[in-house]
Amino acid sequence: MRTREAVLRAAGEAFAQNGFLGTSMSDILQRAGVTKGALYFHFSSKEELAFAVVAAQKAAVTRLAEEEAAKEVPPLQAVVATTTRWARAVQSDPVVRAGVRLVAEQGAYQRPMSRPYGQWEDVLTQLLQRAQDSGQLGEGANPREAAELIVAALTGATIVAQATHGPCDLPQRVEAMWQLLLTGLLPDGHKVFVLPRTLS
Amino acid sequence: MRTREAVLRAAGEAFAQNGFLGTSMSDILQRAGVTKGALYFHFSSKEELAFAVVAAQKAAVTRLAEEEAAKEVPPLQAVVATTTRWARAVQSDPVVRAGVRLVAEQGAYQRPMSRPYGQWEDVLTQLLQRAQDSGQLGEGANPREAAELIVAALTGATIVAQATHGPCDLPQRVEAMWQLLLTGLLPDGHKVFVLPRTLS
């Protein structure tokens, strides 16, 4: 199990930096410091590794959302907290960072990824639906469309940040995103901004 | 000049579909239907071609923004119209579509792209600054941060749409984005939504 984790992490670092086509199995092997036999025991191809990195990133999203949803805060606050913690994970965790890049590199793979952004969108739609059900979502906002926008904005912010200065300013970008978006999501009169900065 | 255009368009189609590393000069040659000599007369390497595609995409953004700004509509409406027309260009113009993908593929190039998203952000910041100067921007909104969010959301929406169903639903995604964002950008009390659908 430790070998698998070491390989996944090494693959995350390599994919985050050089993308799918710019990474070779021997790059990953070298970074992971494991034997070729050990690597191929866990992953039979570079594509299988890339899909495992994406699966790990999706699992991280689900885990973050579940943790925030369990806190019994208003659902909109759980959405903000989930995305804010995810932005920090993009900075600190190469597997999460690589997941974003690999998902964006559709066309590089032999087999298609199933619903590459679907699970992120589902998780946020559920929370936003709960917000709507409890009257905490503005009339103009649709849970599914809002979730799609949030996922697109997060994906784009990660890619822009990466291309510009590395992922270092992603949390500030996500905070600025919420400053603007919350006004659109909250019901009229609710001008209370839930600033990510104040969340643990 | 017609050869250069044919090569750029063929390169756009290939890069949009397969990315920078997944495209070869011979793919482009085959699509363009020009001789190898003609191609290399205009572009000495695949990287030079990719940078030319990105430059053409940036020029398209500037042209759209200038056209909309010249209409003397409220600046915020010019922002909405520019992004809406750009979303349609992503659908219809492989060079624009490829530009988005190539810019996102930083790390694949020998030399860095200069300010890959900077020009898009500058163009929108200027328009949003004009909106602010004429009292048409809400107090909570900052022109530069709003421009960064819009560029990130557009980039992300393009990548998500491409990975999911191709760019076919991008204009609807951009419209949904504005539904939510405009509430955050407009001053209090301005609940008039400038729907992209109604723009020419």
TrEMBL record, chains A, B:
Molecular function, one GO term: DNA binding
KW Transcription (keyword) present: yes
UniProt xrefs under InterPro entries: ArpA-like, CprB_TetR_C, DNA-bd_HTH_TetR-type_CS, Homeodomain-like_sf, HTH_TetR, Tet_transcr_reg_TetR-rel_C_sf
The keyword Transcription regulation appears for this protein: yes
Pfam families: TetR_C_45 (PF21935), TetR_N (PF00440)
Binding region for DNA: 24-43
Keywords, sorted A to Z: DNA-binding, Transcription, Transcription regulation
Chain ranges of the HTH tetR-type domain: 1-61
SUPFAM superfamilies from the UniProt entry: Homeodomain-like, Tetracyclin repressor-like, C-terminal domain
GO biological process, one term: negative regulation of DNA-templated transcription
NCBIfam families attached to this UniProt entry: ScbR_bind_reg (NF041196)
Name of the molecule in the record: HTH tetR-type domain-containing protein
Record organism: Wenjunlia vitaminophila (Streptomyces vitaminophilus)
